[in-house]
Amino acid sequence: MKKLGWMFALLVLLMGLVACGGDDFAGDSEANGETKSEETATNGDSEEGSSNESSEKAEKEEKAAEPKLELVQQAEGAWEDSIGETWVHSSAVYENTGDTPVSIGETQMTFESESGEVLGTAPMIYAVPEVVQPGETAFISESTILEGVSADQFAGTSFNFGFDQADTESNVLEVSGTKGTKGDEYTPYKVTGKVKNTTDAMQEDIRLAAGLFSSDGELLGVLTGSVDVGVNPGSEAGFELTYPEIPKENVDKIKKVEVKAYAWTW
């Protein structure tokens, strides 16, 4: 009986995790951000026309209230390291283009050849910050090894991502003293600075991302990291971001660094 009880409890827990893990909306890097809707004909008498107009109005209001998230910039590049392994770096900027806060779920990156052949994937990548307000942006990034292919076979990355209307605050924190510097052959670029806990509770998991841009605003890469020690309300902690590695040919083009930080909670 005890064994059956434990099995039932485990089943309930798994069902709860599945229910919490889904997103109601999905996006990808092929979408152009246009809203598609069907036009309704209003033939017939004025009463039927009035009913159709009310239905259309309600549908438009419902559409306007839906969360909207678009991938507005992306960057990628591939190279071979000193032992002949092929690495790829892909990063992107998401923008909340709607009128309601958005919670960003998981992203999967698919690395492709010129012909569309899948060279590899990187699932379960998360954006910084996780919650974005209307008009705000988030960064996402990953570097990984592509097994059994050469760097010149890589042609681009497609993104698939989930999102939903947010029911939590953004918990975005203040960043100061941001500085970007060239690194060495192992860490091509480094971003340092301080993050301040502007919430009213101690934060033990602060996540950061640094968007690296050219002088004309082109995305060149994104570095990510975290502060994993407790930071009291009003206190600051230093950070150093060097991961993931970006293509070395992009380093000299970096003219602007933008760092985002937020307090992650369950």
3D architecture notes:
The protein is α+β, with helices and mostly antiparallel strands. The protein has two domains: 97 residues, Immunoglobulin-like (Sandwich); 90 residues, Immunoglobulins (Immunoglobulin-like, Sandwich). Helices cover 15% and strands 44% of the residues. It is built from two helices and 14 strands. The protein starts with a helix and ends with a strand. The N terminus is likely disordered.
Write the layout of secondary structure elements.
Layout: H1 2-21, E1 25-28, H2 46-65, E2 69-80, E3 86-96, E4 102-112, E5 118-125, E6 131-132, E7 137-146, E8 156-165, E9 174-182, E10 189-196, E11 206-213, E12 219-227, E13 236-241, E14 256-263
Antiparallel strand pairs: 1-8, 2-3, 3-7, 4-5, 4-6, 4-8, 9-10, 10-13, 11-12, 11-14
